[in-house]
Amino acid sequence: MSNQESRIVTKIIHELVLFYQMHGYQNIELKTKKSEQEFVIMIYSAILSEDLLKQIHEKIDRERDLEIETYGWQLVGDIDAKSELEIVGHLIDEMMVEKQKQGMKLTFIRKNRYKQKKTPKS
Amino acid sequence: MTIKQFLRKKMITPIIFVILFTLSFIIDDVSTLWSGYLAILKSPSQLITDYLYVGGLGATLFNVSTILLLNIVMLNRLKVKMSGPVFAGLLTIAGFSFFGKNLFNTLPIYLGIYLYARKQHLEFRSFIIVVLFSTGISPLVSFLIFGNGWPLYIGIPLGIVAGILTGFILPALSAHTTRFHKGYNLYNIGFAMGILSMFYSAILTAFGIDYFIDGLISNDYHEILLILTLILSAIFIISAFIFDPRVLRSYPNLMKSTGRLVSDFIRDYGRAPTMLNVGIMGIISTLALMVLSIEINGPVMGGILTVMGFGAFGKHPKNSIPVMMGALLGAALTPVYSIDQVSMAIAVLFVTALAPVAGRYGFFIGVLAGFLHIIITPLAFRFQGGFDLYNNGFAAGFVAALLIPFLEAIFKDEPKEETT
B374 and B331 in contact (C-beta within 8 Å)? Predict the structure, then answer.
């Protein structure tokens, strides 16, 4: 993963955590998993309200937008009450919601779309 | 795909091209048009060079339509979908092709961005937003080639290299500058280019080269351009109702958006409400000019088309009218500035770069932002030297950077109850 990609992923995590915090979900657990194909962010929290879940779906569960990504990614992580998750929605490929016994797990997947630099053979 | 589906998908931009291209040949005969077009290509083009003055209306419309065609073809070849920023980019290109952009001075900048994409191992289309707005600094290329009296064998390579270098720097710089104003300046790339223009101007000044010009403006085509803007606005409004007869029901949702970068109205609210918004923004701009008795010349036409374009990328009546009123107030209350000055007249339109400030913080803060914008714009012009056509974007960046940290500190978000 390039340094740039690391910065983008870190900003996405920043914004998602901030979003949970601003909506009163202070106790969350976060896991990340990276593979060659994708970067996965899993957030475990209490059951989210229907309204909030709908809002997350509307903002995030949409087609990823590479053009917006290169232009606006530096604004990610700077949300307020009136502008939330819009740009993150452009940076994430898939999201999944899973209800668990004592809470809820949201999974956000960002696929590796960039050409990798060729590493010289030793 | 039917024609209706095709036009809906492309936000009727092919219709705009056909109208402008056809009109250019109706207005002028081929030889007049061609000689006017050559004069446009050879013009140094710094702010404010009205191509209507340089080449006449037919040649200017030919310039606008050919650049529009080039970019529409490029978008198709790159398989870029018509999003809000892309639509705004196309109309902004069309608008500024009335005063500063031509085929000759834009291509080196595109090449620079292409080389940057190659260097970063990214697809060129990933940078399409920067590409579409990048040519705001294209007068730099023209000035170095035609504006300084240098022989062409020096001017041409120098201009092309400067254009390529600018294109190469711009993607990284423009992504970075969004943080300076936190996305509250819709003309962010104009701000980034203002910084570059400032440095280029400093280099030229250090070598004793004079680059400021007196504005070259033509108001001779006011009536026909007034009719043209009203027709274009009407086409967007009528199209919105054709594509979705119930568009009025969904339109109010669009006006709830703050408009802060990166607001893609096509993605968020759909094509029909966005088309309606584009048309309404065109009507509002034109009405404002009529009420203020401002005649439409090249720069003013550029302002109208840009405002219409950003009707898909952050601007709507609710967040734009307050900043326009603030700008008018600034021009009326200050003894030095007057709405009769061209730079002030176009600032009343371009002040809408700050529309997200009103969208987020309300009417009165929007008026304040507009007021501050109108008094800083002339200073910004002297500071950047006139190679950045988006001077209002440069000015708006400073206004937003001044206001936003303060407003964020004052208007705190309501904390929510802890959820267990």
Answer: yes
* B21 residue type, one letter: F
A83: pLDDT confidence band, cut at 50, 70 and 90? Answer: low
Q: What is the pTM of this model?
A: 0.91
Q: Under an 8 A CB cutoff, do A70 and B122 touch?
A: yes
CA distance B47 to B141: 13
Rounded-to-integer distance, Cα B45 and Cα B41, Å? 9
| d(C-alpha B319, C-alpha B362), whole Å | 8
A67 touches B at CB < 8 Å = yes
Contact A114 B121 (CB under 8 A): yes
**Which CA distances in Å does B66 have to A30, B136, B138?**
52, 17, 16
Q: Does A68 touch chain B (CB under 8 A)?
A: yes
H or E stretch covering A41:
strand A38-45
Work out the number of other CB atoms within 10 angstroms of the CB of residue A118: 7
Across the range B52-75, mean pLDDT stands at 95
Domains in chain A, CATH or no CATH each:
3-111 (3.30.565)
Length of chain B: 420
A12-27 residue pLDDT tens: 999 899 888 888 898 9
Q: What is the pLDDT of residues B368-412, one digit of tens each?
A: 999 999 999 999 998 888 899 899 999 999 999 999 999 988 887
**Cβ separation of A78 and B182 shorter than 8 Å?**
yes
B237/A contact by beta carbon, under 8 A: no
Q: In what helix (H) or strand (E) does residue B62 lie, and over which residues does it extend? A: helix B51-77
Residues forming a β-bridge with A111 = A38
Cross-strand bridge partners of residue A83: A80
Q: List alpha helices for A40-100, DSSP H.
A: 50-60, 66-72, 86-91
Nearest to B50 by CA among B175, B217, B295, B183: B217
With CA atoms as reference, the chain B residue closest to A59 would be B268
The answer to whether A118 contacts chain B (CB < 8 Å) is no
Q: For residues B331 and B337, is the Cβ–Cβ distance under 8 A? A: yes
Q: Are B123 and A66 inside 8 Å of each other by CB?
A: yes
Indicate yes or no: CB of B176 within 8 angstroms of CB of A74: yes
The answer to whether B178 contacts A75, with C-beta atoms less than 8 Å apart, is: yes
A50/B contact by beta carbon, under 8 A: no
Residue B390 contacts residue B190 (beta carbons within 8 Å):
yes
Nearest to B60 by CA among B86, B35, B78, B90: B35
* Distance in angstroms (rounded) separating the CA atoms of residues B28 and B39: 15
CB-nearest to B126 from A24, A70, A116 is A70
B27 touches chain A (CB under 8 A): no
A102 inside 8 A of chain B by CB: no
For residues B66 and B71, what is the distance between their CA atoms, to the nearest angstrom? 9
Contacts of A119 (CB under 8 A, 6+ apart): none
| Domain extent listing, chain B | 3-206, 222-408
Alpha-carbon gap, residue B53 to B61, rounded angstroms: 12
